[in-house]
């Protein structure tokens, strides 16, 4: 399921006053954009699809009232338990309240967000603002989220994702690539003097780390969601085809051992079978694992650049943490993804969409969340401030940008009860005795779901 954010859905008379508030908000935000935050000061307040007329927009812009008019309380659902616990979110709220002093933001952090948000959406308990679940079909976005103003999407990455029938329902909170985050001191202790650039070199490095008493790679099997990188989170760029999932809509057997799914899964299974991951697979040790990698007790993660500041926050020196592309074979040249992190949206059931809209835009464009999270900025014209990204780029990966997926792909997966983007299925595959047999079962379910949906 995915998370969606919409603006609108009120009766016509309320829309008129709402437009004035929105454009007053846009003018205030544009004024702040020129204060050294790296945003494009030429951004203009164009009318969104939810606004009734250009003339109404123009008059609202000219008579923009004080930001204090936008106030009240909203609840924000987030996966960032760390930012809620360490006060980072409070810092964002303090900055937000400089513009909207009558606003109150309440956070609810979900430890297993990817699974929990699915339930929250169906029970109507997704708060006013939430991160959109990656598995939610685009066609289902209007059911849970309000459309966002079109002018938010000028010069941003992945503007066409999380859209349906021409309306935007989510905007990404940051841009990620993916690879191996590693502790340089752990590598040095194990006698590894060269970053692995082939799969054989990666395996050799893992054994050296194990021999040195260091956990080679913290897979976070018990946390469940991180293992998705060994499957649907990576298969498209490993295949060199970011539209790969569209082809599976007409394929009865997409899961193959000799394909990209099998290539990644074989690597994951090798790490488990060789004892190159944490010993305790069953327990969710996500928060603890950051300290393990930070201290050098564990050496690697296979995750996105977003985890780098979290490892540094857990005690590592920035200069001791590096980042390189996953060498998924012995070819020496690799693809790497360029994808959006969680998309943020405004809940269709929100009772305060004005404030929810203001918070969502502020969070993405002004809070500093992207840099704090180790992301590349959403705005294409802004350079990333994370030094490890320079190391990553030095290996010359071919970046492949995420593209929209045929919504029928998620429809089939949901019908087949294959929990993509959550990790449970991938967990079972990693430890299965016979990978081919498990893929055969998945293909049977996939084919049956396609047939049931008339595809």
Blueprint (SSEs and pairs):
Elements: H1 12-33, H2 54-62, E1 72-78, H3 81-85, H4 88-97, E2 103-109, H5 113-123, E3 129-132, H6 141-144, E4 163-164, E5 167-168, E6 171-172, E7 175-176, E8 178-183, H7 184-189, H8 199-211, E9 215-217, H9 235-239, H10 244-248, H11 260-273, H12 286-295, E10 298-304, H13 308-313, E11 321-324, E12 335-340, E13 343-346, H14 353-365, H15 369-372, H16 388-394, E14 398-401, H17 407-415, H18 424-431, H19 435-452
Parallel strand pairs: 1-2, 9-10, 12-14
Antiparallel strand pairs: 3-13, 4-5, 6-13, 7-12, 8-10, 8-11
Descriptive notes:
This protein is of the alpha/beta class. It has two domains: 12-174 and 341-385, D-Maltodextrin-Binding Protein, domain 2 (3-Layer(aba) Sandwich), CATH 3.40.190; 178-339 and 390-452, 3-Layer(aba) Sandwich (D-Maltodextrin-Binding Protein, domain 2), CATH 3.40.190.10. The chain is built from 19 helices and 14 strands. It has helices at 12-33, 54-62, 81-85, 88-97, 113-123, 141-144, 184-189, 199-211, 235-239, 244-248, 260-273, 286-295, 308-313, 353-365, 369-372, 388-394, 407-415, 424-431, 435-452; strands at residues 72-78, 103-109, 129-132, 163-164, 167-168, 171-172, 175-176, 178-183, 215-217, 298-304, 321-324, 335-340, 343-346, 398-401. The strands form five sheets. A four-stranded mixed β-sheet has the order 9-10-8-11. Strand 4 (163-164) and strand 5 form a beta hairpin. Helix 1 crosses helix 2, helix 1 packs parallel to helix 14 and helix 11 packs across helix 18 (424-431). The longest helix has 22 residues, at 12-33. The chain is globular and about 60 Å long.
């Amino acid at each position: 399921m995915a998370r969606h954010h919409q603006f609108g859905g009120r009766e016509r008379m309320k829309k008129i006053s709402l437009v004035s508030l929105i454009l007053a908000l846009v003018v205030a935000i544009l004024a702040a954009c020129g204060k050294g935050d790296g945003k494009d000061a030429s951004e203009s307040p164009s009318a969104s699809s939810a606004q009734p007329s250009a003339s109404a927009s123009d008059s609202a812009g000219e008579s923009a009232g004080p930001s204090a008019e936008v106030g009240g309380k909203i609840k924000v659902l987030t996966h960032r338990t760390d930012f809620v616990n360490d006060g980072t979110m409070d810092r964002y709220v303090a900055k937000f309240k400089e513009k909207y002093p009558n606003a109150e933001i309440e956070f609810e952090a979900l430890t297993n967000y990817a699974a929990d948000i699915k339930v929250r959406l169906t029970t109507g308990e997704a708060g006013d603002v939430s991160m959109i679940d990656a598995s939610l079909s685009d066609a289902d976005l209007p059911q849970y989220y309000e459309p966002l103003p079109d002018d938010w999407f000028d010069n941003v990455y992945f503007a066409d994702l999380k859209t349906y029938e021409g309306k935007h329902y989510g905007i990404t909170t940051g841009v990620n690539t993916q690879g191996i985050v590693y502790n340089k001191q752990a590598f040095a202790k194990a006698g590894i003097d060269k970053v692995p650039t082939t799969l054989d070199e990666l395996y050799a490095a893992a054994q050296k780390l194990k021999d040195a008493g260091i956990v080679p790679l913290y897979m976070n099997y018990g946390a469940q969601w991180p293992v998705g990188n060994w499957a649907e989170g990576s298969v498209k760029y490993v295949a060199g085809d970011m539209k790969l999932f569209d082809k599976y809509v007409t394929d009865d057997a997409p899961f193959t051992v000799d394909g990209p799914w099998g290539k990644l899964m074989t690597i994951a299974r090798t790490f488990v079978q060789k004892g190159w991951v944490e010993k305790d697979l069953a327990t969710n040790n996500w928060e603890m694992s950051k300290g393990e990698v930070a201290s050098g007790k564990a050496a690697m993660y296979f995750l996105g650049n977003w985890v780098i500041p979290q490892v540094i926050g857990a005690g590592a020196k920035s200069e001791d943490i590096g980042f390189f592309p996953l060498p998924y074979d012995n070819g020496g040249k690799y693809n790497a993804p360029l994808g959006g992190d969680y998309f943020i949206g405004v809940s269709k059931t929100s009772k305060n969409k004005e404030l929810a809209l203001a918070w969502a835009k502020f969070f993405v464009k002004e809070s500093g969340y992207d840099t704090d999270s180790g992301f590349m900025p959403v705005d294409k014209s802004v350079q990333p401030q994370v030094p490890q990204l320079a190391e990553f780029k030095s290996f010359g990966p071919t970046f492949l940008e995420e593209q929209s997926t045929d919504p029928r792909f998620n429809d089939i997966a949901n019908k087949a009860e294959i929990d993509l983007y959550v990790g449970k299925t991938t967990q079972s595959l990693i430890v299965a005795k016979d990978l081919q047999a498990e893929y055969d079962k998945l293909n049977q379910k996939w084919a049956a779901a396609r047939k049931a949906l008339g595809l």
